[in-house]
Structure formats: C-alpha cells, structure tokens
Amino acid sequence: MGQAASSSSSAIAGTLVLANLGTPTAPTAPAVRRYLAEFLSDPRVVAIPRLLWQPLLRGVILPLRGPKSAEKYAKVWLEGGSPLAVYTIGLAAQVQALLPHWRVVPAMRYGEPSLRALLQQARDEDGLVRMLPLYPQYSTTTTASMQDVARAVNPAAPDARLQWVEDYSDDPDWIAAVAESIAHWRARHGAGAHLLFSFHGLPQRVANNGDPYPQRCERSAALIAQALGLGEGEWTLTYQSRFGRERWLEPATDTELAALAARGVTQVDVVCPGFAVDCLETLEEVGMQFAEGFAHAGGTLRYIPCLNDAPAHARALVAMLERQFGPMRA
Fold first, then answer.
1. Membrane-spanning residues where (predicted)?
2. What is the pTM of this model?
3. What is the pLDDT of residues 198-212, one digit of tens each?
C-alpha cells in the first residue's frame, strides 16, 4: 500500500500516514498548473466564493503563475523529484525502519501520492490508520484541510480507527531535534549575528477568525530559541510567502531582513521550523530570493536546512507518536 512499506502483512499493526502539502510532478508549466489548480481550489486555502474564484484562477492566475513557478521549481529540483517529495518519501522510510510492525506511507494533500486515495483504500481494508500531517503548527488551512478529506472519504461519525496528530509545535523531542540541528550547523559554519525563524504566512483575516497558527509558531520559536540558549535580541520570528493583496501575518521575512540590514546586521542565519522538509518556499524563496535581496543590502543570508529525512527527525516523530498513542514498537 505504500512506497515505504516493507513489513509482512501478518505483523502489521496499522498504517501510519506521513502527509505533506504536495508538489508538482515535474518542473514544467503544465505540471505546475495542474498542482496549483488543485491547491488553490481548496476553500481552506482561498476563501473566495467558487463562482468568482474559479474563472479568475483558471483564466488569469494559472496561466501567469504556471510558467513562473515552473522556473522556480527547476532551480531546486532534485534527481529524484521535487525536494518536498524526495524528503517526505525518505522520512517515511526512516520512520518505517523504526516501526517495522507498521505500514508507513507518504501521502500528499494535493497531487500524488494522493491522500484521498490512500484513505479510501485504508477504509476499504478496515484497519487502524494514524495520521501525521507534517505541519508542526496546526492551522485551519493545512491540517484541517486534511481532516476535510478524511470526512469526505468517510462521512460517518468519528471513527476510532482513524487517529490524528493535530499539532506538535511544542513537542519536546521535536523541539530538541530542531535545536540540535541548528546548533550542529552553526558549530560547523559559525554562528551568524542573528537567527531568524521564518514561518509560512497566513492572511491576517484567518488569524482574526480564530486560527491558532500564529500562537503555535510563537511557541515553537520561543522554545527552540530557549533550547539554543539565545537571548531576546538574538533571534526574530517572521512570516513569508505572501500571496494576493490582503494583509498577511507580520512581520514579513523580507521586510525584517531589510530592517536588520539597516541596523547594520550583516550576517543572518535563517531557519524554517514550520516546514518538516525543504521545499520551494525554503530553498528558492529563502535560500535564493531573500538571500539575494539581503546581499544587495550588503549582508549575507545563510539558510539552515530543515530536518528533512535525517534519522534524528524520524526518532523525534516516533517519540512524539508514542507519547500521544502509547508504545508502537513491539
């Protein structure tokens, strides 16, 4: 049932799904348009009424964004596919090695391998499924969208056979893994004058309507900074990836970088703990776009990679899962 499965079916305790956002299948305009059409048609992502939004999306936005986004994907594409897909599949394999009595599979909310198809198959097989959305900080735009898919596949009352991790923004093992990754990177490369935590942004309207995402990001950043022994003036939290004209969460990453440069800070390390694995937003937006802008202001931006498919990431996730669900290793 999955690329990372290797255990005998007679010993399987259930299916563990590591679900990520999704990615195009190729760095081409048609593939990117197909992916963006699905992603931007989710009402959790864009709340504009469908009758108004779909003509604008398909007639204007996709034709314009498809080729431009394809060029960006081409800059970060790996031999095995997009970074998000390669690292998500690799992480599932690392978790599978720690949980041989579980079937561990990667899935995507948008694109392939399809979360909807996987949940339909799991429903038909009538087995226990545990869902781990690879979004450390819960949001109605991410984890809740995956839960929408689950409800659509099985509209009956909540089923004990489908169990969720909704948030692990302050999980101690995950916090420790991120902090150790940052510390090891800075030990090898030297510590920049400032550490910036850049999270994916949300429209301010979503937060005003009760989405707890900003508070979860603040909690994560504060705990990671504490684990690193950083003082208040040594780090900053920002938000990236704005889209459209409405107000988004602030401070914006590019704006804050400009402010740091204006204050004479010439070397900034950037980490993105809202992303479980590296993707277009971390590698191209931060590691290329923002780095170039900061260089033009006279500074050096150094991007610290996500945990990706490192064994330490898998160990932290398994410890978190066992803290929530009880022992999973026989």
1. none
2. 0.94
3. 999 999 999 999 999
